[in-house]
């Protein structure tokens, strides 16, 4: 019994029950230490399989009758659970509908679908490698039906159920939003006017104080000059008085 891989039929395992030969040739990087063979059945197991192990496997069985079998092995990454996102950018102007995106990342050869109960509402199928997918759904806020997003490949599937009450939020009212902007602008403008008025009052008060100080200094100088003049006059009178003999 011989196991081989690929177009070149590279030998990867050999069993000879008569001679008690049980060998695996997994020294290469592609299968290094990951080939396991059942000595009773001859089945081959690849542990920790990766996309590098995808391809054609040949099994040749010799005996009274020569038998050959071909296995086409494909490897799929484990599917992640779809993520549901409230899509605020697609808010409906009616204010009654909720827009939800079902998203998956790094997938290949899968289908992504929205279900209402057991009925398919929409679906998308891709075969490209490692791409991201998103599928939108629009429902009413008061909708009581059961919705779910499902991702499938050939071997498995993952499902996420939509909870409208938890995920969906009402779209913002544009008129209310505009009113809030106007109110905020008016409040900021009033605050700026108030600050300017306070600063103006403080500035005027400072200029008045400086002016009063200058007047006080001028009066003080004038008093000093008058005092010096009076003293000089007294001295002049004193000097003009004739001396008695």
UniProtKB/TrEMBL annotation:
Domain of life the protein comes from: Eukaryota
Keywords linked to the UniProt accession: Membrane, Transmembrane, Transmembrane helix
Transmembrane regions: 178-202
The keyword Acyltransferase is assigned to this record: no
This protein's record includes keyword Membrane: yes
Database matches in InterPro entries: Ig-like_dom, Ig-like_dom_sf, Ig-like_fold
Domain spans labelled Ig-like: 82-165
Alphabetized PROSITE patterns for the sequence: IG_LIKE
PANTHER family from the UniProt entry: CD48 ANTIGEN-RELATED, LFA-3
Designated name of the protein: Uncharacterized protein isoform X3
Gene: LOC110437711
């Amino acid at each position: 019994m011989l196991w081989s891989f690929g177009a070149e039929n590279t030998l990867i395992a050999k069993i000879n029950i008569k001679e008690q030969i049980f060998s695996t040739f997994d020294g290469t990087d592609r299968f290094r230490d990951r080939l396991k063979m059942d000595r009773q059945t001859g089945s081959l197991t690849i542990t920790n399989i990766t996309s590098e192990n995808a391809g054609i496997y040949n099994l040749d069985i010799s005996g009274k009758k020569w038998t050959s079998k071909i296995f086409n092995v494909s490897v799929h990454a484990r599917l992640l659970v779809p993520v549901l996102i409230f899509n605020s950018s697609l808010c409906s102007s009616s204010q009654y509908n909720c827009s939800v995106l079902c998203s998956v990342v790094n997938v290949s050869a899968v289908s992504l679908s929205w279900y209402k109960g057991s009925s398919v509402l929409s679906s998308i199928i891709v075969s490209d490698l490692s791409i991201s997918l998103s599928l939108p759904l629009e429902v009413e806020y008061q909708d009581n039906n059961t919705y779910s997003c499902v991702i499938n490949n050939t071997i498995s599937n993952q499902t996420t159920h939509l909870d409208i009450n938890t995920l969906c939020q009402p779209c913002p009212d544009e008129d209310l939003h505009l009113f809030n902007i106007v109110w905020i602008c008016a409040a900021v403008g009033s605050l700026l006017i108030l600050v300017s008025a306070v600063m103006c009052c403080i500035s005027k008060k400072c200029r008045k104080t400086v002016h009063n100080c200058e007047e006080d200094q001028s009066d003080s100088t004038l008093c000093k000059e008058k005092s010096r003049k009076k003293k000089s006059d007294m001295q002049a009178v004193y000097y003009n008085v004739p001396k008695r003999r």
